[in-house]
């Protein structure tokens, strides 16, 4: 296995890149890391803010609700 890092460009949902090394033809695994796109955490945080969970107290209330629901579900299973 050879791991290398290079930069590429995405235009109209097509990825174009050049490898700095000679690599045999074949299938490769690709990991894409973007700097200007929000990740899942950013998206979830924005959804929480949009739904009114924009303070520590409201978030802690939501966590308590989820814990209570999980506890009640656990008691029903036993």
Give a verbal description of the structure.
The protein is mainly alpha-helical. Strand 1 and strand 2 form a beta hairpin. The longest helix is centred in the C-terminal third of the chain and has 22 residues, at 56-77. The protein has a two-stranded antiparallel sheet. It has helices at residues 40-50, 56-77, and strands at 8-11, 14-17.
> What's the average pLDDT?
85
Number of strands: 2
Give me the side-by-side strand order of the main sheet. 1-2
The outline comes out as: elongated
Give, in order, the helices and strands. Answer: EEHH
Structural class: mainly alpha
Helical amount among residues, as a percent range?
A: 40-55%
Radius of gyration: 22 Å
Distance between the termini: 47 Å
The fraction of residues in strands falls at 5-15%
How many DSSP helices? 2
* Main beta-sheet strand count, sense and barrel state: 2 strands, antiparallel
The parts where pLDDT drops under 50 for at least 5 residues are: none
């Amino acid at each position: 296995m050879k791991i290398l890092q290079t930069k590429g460009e995405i235009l109209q949902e097509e990825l174009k890149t050049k490898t700095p090394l000679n690599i045999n033809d074949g299938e490769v695994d690709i990991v894409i890391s973007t700097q200007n796109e929000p990740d899942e955490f950013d998206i979830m945080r924005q959804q929480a803010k949009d739904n009114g969970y924009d303070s520590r107290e409201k978030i802690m209330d939501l966590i308590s609700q989820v814990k209570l629901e999980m506890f009640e579900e656990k008691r029903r299973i036993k």
